[in-house]
Amino acid sequence: MVRKTLSDEQISAEAHRLLKQFYGYSSFRPLQLDIITAVAHGKDALVLMPTGGGKSVCYQIPAIMNEGCAIVVSPLIALMQDQVDGLIANGIPAASINSLQSDSDNRAIMEQVFAERIKLLYISPERLLTELPRWSQSMPISMIAIDEAHCISQWGHDFRPEYTKLCCIKEYFPNIPVMALTATADKITRSDIVNQLRFGEDAKLFVSTFDRPNIQLQVMPDPGKAQRISTISRLIATHPNDTGIVYCMTRKGVEAMHSELQKRGFKSAAYHAALSTETRHRSQRDFINGEIQVICATVAFGMGIDKSNIRWVVHNNMPSSIEHYYQEIGRAGRDGMPALALMFYSVGDIITLRKFATESGQADINLAKLQRMKEYAESSVCRRRVLLSYFSEPLEHDCLSCDVCSSPPQRYNALIPVQKALSAMLRTNEQVGVSMLVDILRGSQRGDLVAQGFHKIRTYGAGADLSVAQWQHIVLQMVQLGIVDIAYDQGRRLKVTPYGMSLLKSNVPVMMTMAATNATPVRKRASKPAYKNDSLLDHLKKVRLNLARANSLPAYLIFSDRTLSIIASDRPRSYNQFLAVDGVARRKATMYSEIFISAIAEWEKTHPGE
Ligand code: ADP
Ligand code: ZN
Questions:
Q1: 306 CA closest ligand 1 atom index
Q2: What is the pLDDT of residues 102-118, one digit of tens each?
Q3: Which of 110, 240, 408, 537 is most buried by its number of CB atoms within 10 A?
Q4: In this structure, are 288 and 358 located in the same domain?
Q5: Are residues 457 and 362 in the same domain?
Q6: Which residues have CB atoms below 5 A from the ion given as ligand 2?
Q7: 224 and 312 share a domain?
Q8: More confident residue, 594 or 530
């Protein structure tokens, strides 16, 4: 392809014009314009940006700007269509060829590509490799973008063998710029990508910040099952027109959570590997289209989903590493609007994860990763600082929005409860696990407790003044401080360590943090008695959902939450005012301005003075 030679100023002006026309945005996020400029100059580029950072624009704008068609390699056929739908909705001619379409459809699309009527062509790596030999002579290719590029590396967390064959791209197209994009930061993976793809010597590396300040971070020591469910219920109730994710460690956990939430009348779906493909697809569709309020899922869910209006992600269990955690919470708030990431963690999770890590075949690495995750969960300093320092991007100030920043943990001397727990363990000959121990201390009537005669020991009921959650938090810290040990080979019974023994008759304070059960778990709004579900924004969300259904598009592809909330606060009254809203592309203004303008007027009639 002949590349137009443009100056940086010309590229910038043209890129801004296209950004407004096709995406409705008036400014680029950091690095986006630099990346676009590098490609416009024909350079290869490796782009590292967190999930939701705005990678797509970096190759889509050069694709529109240049003659010919950009090839986008993407591993997930099932989700290519969403990307293509989003582009078409904005007036950008795009298509995909894949094995889910008929051969004649695929052929028809290729004809359009050769006729230069398509600007972006999405394709899987397998398919690209079979097509390449046919294309190289005559295909009008402007650039090649490789999404989820970490899949090429064995060091990445999602290695896919078919990606390794992409190393031959440069043989076929030595002069076409290649852009590799990923949200994985680690250094070995980075250089592996550059080497394998045979990038040119003047290739550029772009690493954007991994901070996602709009995601509020919260961690809660296990408040007990009932509290967890009511916390999640409150979260759904405060976001009735949005969708969130609850990640659970096991399929059983997913099913249990899903049925609890359904029982409470919430629109929930389940997703895990043991469900039929059909059920999984339906859950995924309903999630993308906003037809459900919550999806309960294992980590199998989420890769490649770029729904921008996920307002909250809950980890019902602690993930096994910070990489996993960050990728999963990164799915929230891609539109830049406030989002919440809440994680529960418990002694039980740590026990299970430690077992998995030990048996994983890479025990050293996985135990070390688990340790970092645990330190994050137990951090008594700003959580964002802990996260970003993990990604070698230390933050120099507290974020002021995570739970630690907003209510630093209080410490107290827990010697007395610790001694009670130790005494109960010794009086039951160290034959009990966490939950039985807590029940003994609280004087529970449970059948197996009485059957074993534990109600007769002296410490039975000695800790009735504390809740189950408070006791679990104390036992968790006893494990962390090395006061007790967990015997994995003996049904996870608790054993008193020599240090624990030394505390039995000691006066030395044992400082512990308070369980956070009484702290407000979700944003302040949640503490209001009832959620008012008829703001203008709520109304516009319903209008958007109806339009989405009528157009068979996910709601966030009509307008993002961010754009919708600007519409709700600006209340545009004319086409031009509507077009001026950040995030309104020209085609969308033409299609939807009247509908939204009259929806605003209609709402105002029933809400005078608001
Ligand atoms: P990624 O692929 O990096 O996970 P996306 O490309 O899906 O992220 O972008 C995430 C969200 O950010 C999308 O809703 C997108 O429209 C929005 N976005 C991208 N660039 C900009 C920008 N310059 N201004 C405002 N929003 C943007
Ligand atoms: Zn903080």
A1: 7
A2: 999 999 999 999 999 99
A3: 110
A4: yes
A5: no
A6: 382, 384, 398-399, 402, 405
A7: yes
A8: 594
